[in-house]
Design brief:
The chain has 342 residues and is of the alpha/beta class. It has nine helices and 16 strands. A hairpin with a 6-residue loop joins strand 1 and strand 2. The longest helix is centred in the middle third of the chain and has 14 residues. The two termini are 38 Å apart.
Amino acid sequence: MKKIILSSVLLSVLIFTSCKTTTELEKSYPAPSSSIDAVEFNEVWGYVMNKREKDYTPELPVTDIGYFISAVNTFSELDQVLPKEKFFNNTSARVHLVTSCDSKAQTHLLLSPEYSLRDKIIDQLIAATETYDGLQIDWELVPADDAEHFAQFLKILKSKLNGKMLSVAIPARIKTLEKDAYNYETISSIADRIIIMAYDQHWSTSKPGSIAGTDWCEKIADYALTKIEPDKLVMGMSFYGRAWRDDTEGGKAYIYSSTEKLIKEHKVKKIVRDEYLTPSFTFTKKLTITTWYDDATSLKLRTEMYRNKGVKNLSFWRIGQEDKNYWQYLKVDKNKQALQLN
């Protein structure tokens, strides 16, 4: 993982400065070998977003596509789902429909057996999966108190899929929690594949840091391998980066007293008013942006770590966000792939 500091005298102008020397970077992250030594896995899952289907190309070493459709809508229904052949007619990879739900309250209502919503959404998911090879549940806001209902929901889906693959994406863990809707052992006893989302170690409101530090990912893999069968386990990797700004003044609302304080602290000399006499002011300050991201070098290192741990399957969030040089360091066991697809 590389760290770059971006500095600016004006908010709109960024000047890149490296916080590590080239020597330090080379020592920690050796350049890719000129002789390609690709790391082999049984399955490689790549996520494709709805309306970003063109990001995928059949030449990629991907055995399984997670096609991420729109989240369950305001009316607790699925929006129209087009058949698999619409976008993935020329691939030999299996294509799994991926569903999400973006509200904790809505998730609770959809999982509760007390309401007809659960049966309704299950029927819609099964119908939407008709032309696909499997269904993936990526519901990331399941309340801990709904653990039993979530497991029951997954069991019903599995029974109605008629042999198609059920996969579930769940958060990263390094230990068993006393109360957890995403208990690894429980979910792995139901689903065919468990995708561990081993990323967001640092997030938008945390301190700056790696999206998925390899040492952190190693702990997650160690724990997951004690709870999930290796053939079912899919370790998720991220392609995106994230930036943090050091100022605490932009991007938020202010009450009047705080606005007055801002004027005083930054010695604002000029306040202007529009035609309706609404005041505004502008001030300039130094801004530092810290960005963490992955490239082919750091991704290859993490890939090798997973393979050395005995991880057989990987997934990537998401296709279209990656350093394209990375793909040359990844390959699929063609014999196992042929067995899976037949």
